[in-house]
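Researcher: Let's continue the batch. This sequence belongs to UbiD family decarboxylase, and it's 480 residues. Same format as the previous ones, please.
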Amino acid sequence: MTEPLLSLRTHLDAIKGYGELREVRGADWDLELGGIAELSYRMDPPPALLFDDISGYANGLRVLTGSTGSPRRLGRTLRLGEDLDSVGVVDALRGKPGKWASAARDFPVLPVTDAPLLANVVEGPDVNLLDFPVPRWHADDGGRFIGTGCFVVTSDPETGVHNGGCYRMEVQDEGRGVTVAMVPGKHGDQNVRAWFEKEGRAPVTVSFGHDPLLLVLGGTEVPGGVSELEYAGAVLGERVPVVLGPDTGLPIPAGSEIAIEGWLRPDHQRDEGPFGEWTGYYSGKRRPNLAIDITRMYYRANPILLGAPPGKPPHDYSYMRTVMKSAMIHDELAATGVPGVVKAWAHESGGGRLFIAVSLQQKYPGHARQVAYLAAQCPAAAYMNRYVVVVDDDVDPADPDEVIWAMSTRSDPSRDIEIMKQTWGSKLDPLFVEGSPAYNSRAIVDACRPFERLGSFPKVASSDPAFLSSLAEKWRDVLD
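Model: Same format as before. Here are the structure tokens for UbiD family decarboxylase:
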């Protein structure tokens, strides 16, 4: 059988060809696997790691980490090209999300009845997720989390439109169950609540191994009413083949390695967490969360679990989120019609959400503040954003040294910092106080030269870039 569309194995073959895949044999699923992955994210460039011969498990039961952690791997994932650097990936991505969203309905999922996933089917009472080497990623995690690179499918009970999200999922009941920590207010959570109101339960399917395109789409803001599976079809230019779960009727990507289907009920909960999250902190305390009543599990021979553990940046998907958010924020600013925006960057050290910098060519008084406020609340940046810094077009917003230099020399704290209050926060925020609403505040920092002084502001003490480039070429033997 040929590999289905969105097969993780096809992605692995590609990154092997780049020389960016390393195999790790003999690691322990308990902390050691997660620790090795954490060390790999700090390498330059960070490789993808394929773990095999995991302690206590048979050869062939594998875990992949770092699937999107380089420009080549992310460029391949998004089908933008396989020879791009970071700037090239962002530039190639500009304008694409809107086009993909508009075209998504032209690529309805393609139901199939044959897929490698169907090689093994286990009925609910016999399900044991711990038959697979599910890691305990961080020392203070509350358990073993199988859902880090997962793709959770729900549906709108009125329209039938599918949603695919990536949420943390902890194995429960000695492998027979799993919790799903959906973010309140996100589309998946809205679907589940609507099903609860309508029927008292909500159908769900989950894939635990697949082409990382689904990880990317499940972790970013695809517009409401647009199916992530159809959106993926628009990215690929082909309909995504799916197996329809016989119990739920919901799709499972045919290229999945391991998948489950089942039901969520308001009263079926298990204690979940804490978990080392993308902010770099453990979130909250152990608390009840919705658990899936698993009716069936499916897996192919020698399945591969897609791991995407978060943590203190850089982590597994912080690079991916930075690239995606940077392009999406820039596109949304351009769509408002505001002129002069040169570049947006959602910094990896802020998890791709918490710290955003935007450069612009100032056109009129108030232009910098206008761009800052729009950036702070545009859909791609509204969730858990904390700082927005606007800089002039001679400053690279992706370079933290240049941004800090601009903040230090072009902003007056008493005049150029404004605070927005009661904005969209999260219980994942380490500053969140239990029992309070999940608001946050965000600072707008105008680090542009004052508009009225553009002609008289002190000149920057730096040589002309073209001159420096010519010197770098002429004196390459000294400067390389």
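Researcher: Any comment?
Model: The longest helix spans residues 318-335.
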